Amino acid sequence: MKKANGQKPNEDAPAAQEPHFTRYSLLATLNSSFTRYSLLATLNLTALAAGPRLILISVDGMRADQVNATNTPNFAALRDAGASTIAINDLPSVTMTNHATMLTGRPTAEHGVILDIELPGTLQFPTLLDYAVESGLRTAFFVSKSKLEYMAHSAAIETMITNGEQSELVDRLLPLVVADGPDLIFLHLREPDSTGHATGWLSPAYMQALAGSDAQIGRIVAAARADATRDTFFIVTSDHGGDGPNHFANIPENREVAWIVAGPGIPAGRSLQTPVALVDTTPTALWLLDLPVPDGLVGKPITELRAASAAAGAATPAPPITLPCFILMLPAVLAALTAAAIGTHGANGRGASASMAPNAPRGSHHQA
User: Are 285 and 340 members of one domain?
Assistant: First the structure.
């Protein structure tokens, strides 16, 4: 056989060498092999590094004394996972007044919303959503009564949906509970208020309507927990309770509302000792999101939510190693183990010399 140039092949040439990994080539291979995983892990950590979202839910007409594991298992589970108390609403004890109080951090005497009807224009004071947008956050506004659009300044809201059918409203909300979704979501559920006016508070129909709203809360909590890319704060409350067919009188059944807060850093099962009013909702939401609380608000952040629950002087546990961190560490760990193993082989005369060039054939030494 002849080569293409007519010369005979060198019959004395050494046989082809088997593939050989030196310390350097093996480390290079490890580095190349795990680069893709390191990049993926880095991207995953970037997603996890996104700030928390906050979902504020107002359940219209929910009586505080009916929130329990039997009537409202999802509300009760959220309460048990975080902190809770009974808050006092504002007067008059109606929907428009108390949503203005809830979303501005200002009482009726300041925001002036006393009529529980469709009002022209929009609220004349900044709301929680305005403050969030000023700080660079994205917001969404979901309501099941059109009159609450009065609380929404269009420049402060990226997504705004009004729908009287609660399940459809939540259907529209759930796709936004994702890594790149809004940072602040406000949701209003019209039940059990509408049924309470029709059949009376605590009637069988009212209790069924309350259970329906509880089921919608369960869907939202499940979606937030399924999205591991972000932490979620929940604030769940109401505008008023009710007695008989209405909620206008200045009595505890109308004025006491559940106030539940759950999320990272909030001790589970805590019963708040600080007196809370509905006007404290917006300042507390801003504080939880580490946003500035404007001067001049009557409402105040409830800082007891993050007060230490452990005994003073107790050791702080080390944070657990999560899967993304482990993936990032894996190339370095394997490389170190491989280098140690090769070094051991070399010391015993069974491996390549430490001075061997990366691509040198077996038996050859790199010449400086």
Answer: no
